[in-house]
Specification:
There is one protein chain. The chain is an alpha/beta fold. The chain has a single domain, classed as Purple Acid Phosphatase, chain A, domain 2, CATH 3.60.21. The chain is built from nine helices and 14 strands. A hairpin with a 3-residue loop joins strand 8 (about 135-140) and strand 9. Helix 3 (about 85-90) packs across helix 5 and helix 4 packs across helix 5 (about 120-135). The two termini are about 30 Å apart. It comes from Methanothermobacter tenebrarum.
Length: about 260
């Protein structure tokens, strides 16, 4: 395994659990962690593609508990990989973020105040420092690219992903597109061009609440693990199998339900 700043590169060995947006749902998070505990091996990996935080229901939003747990695992296991999502990015860039008219930035601050009292701002800054350490993508030895969203357009090679935060977080078009783009922001041709430029055959993203999974142009698999339109899916990616396109990834999809 190689960690090139913002890109994790995994060898053709073992398997990887790929889990997407949790958004403060501790029940789903715990179920995935149980799966990981039974799956964990020195050659196996867990990849969580971002957006651990910001539940829609403040009363049941366990973003802080999930974040603290995942942060500990990330810092104490070389095979536990957290990627930056647009909701974590929003705290770094100090951008307010809304869903269905709900100010999730304000809700997160409320959770911090409830748990940490007058120390909440210090705790927020510590979380922001942690988010800045997170990679933005994974590239596997069998040519699968994994990120929160995207693809970003105007990427010429994989080195641009490795160096993507060199331009900062706030006014960085390529990073913004990697974290925010949904299909419609880009075309099927954009997916093909991006994958060819970075030397991959298929990609896995979260970000969009589909019904479990959705295959875009046969090369991009959109996965919804918790914040979904119905089914809750994840991928048990065989790092040793030949991956020609997204159809090969579909064979590796599993469901919580």
């Amino acid at each position: 395994m190689f960690n090139n700043r913002k890109l994790i590169e995994l060898p053709k060995k073992g398997k990887a659990l790929v889990i997407t947006d949790i958004h403060g749902n501790i029940d789903d998070y715990n179920r995935f962690m149980d799966i990981w505990e039974n799956f964990r091996d020195r050659d196996n990996h867990l990849i969580q593609t971002g957006d651990l935080i910001h539940g829609m229901d403040l009363k049941n939003d366990k973003s802080i508990e999930i974040l603290d747990s995942a942060k500990y695992k990330f810092e104490n296991s070389k095979n536990f990989h957290l990627l930056l999502g647009n909701h974590e990015w929003s705290l770094i860039s100090k951008t307010e973020i809304y869903k269905a008219g709900i100010n999730l930035t304000l809700n997160f601050e409320t959770l911090l105040k409830q748990k940490f009292g007058i120390q909440w701002e210090d705790k927020l800054e510590n979380y922001i420092k942690f988010f800045k350490k997170l990679p933005v993508a994974v590239k596997t030895g069998n040519k699968v690219f994994i990120s929160h969203a995207g693809p970003p357009r105007y990427i010429d090679d994989i080195d641009e992903i490795i160096q993507i935060t060199n331009a900062g977080y706030s006014k960085n078009r390529k990073l913004f597109e990697l974290l925010w783009n949904r299909y419609g922001d880009y075309t099927k041709e954009d997916i093909d061009s991006f994958l060819e430029n970075i030397g991959c055959n298929a990609m896995i993203v979260g970000h969009t609440p589909v019904n479990g999974v959705e295959l875009t142009n046969e090369r991009q698999l959109v996965v919804a693990s918790s914040y979904t339109m119905g089914k809750r899916a994840y991928v048990k990616l065989d790092l040793e199998s030949k991956i020609k396109n997204g159809k090969d990834l579909l064979k590796m999809v599993k469901y919580l339900d």
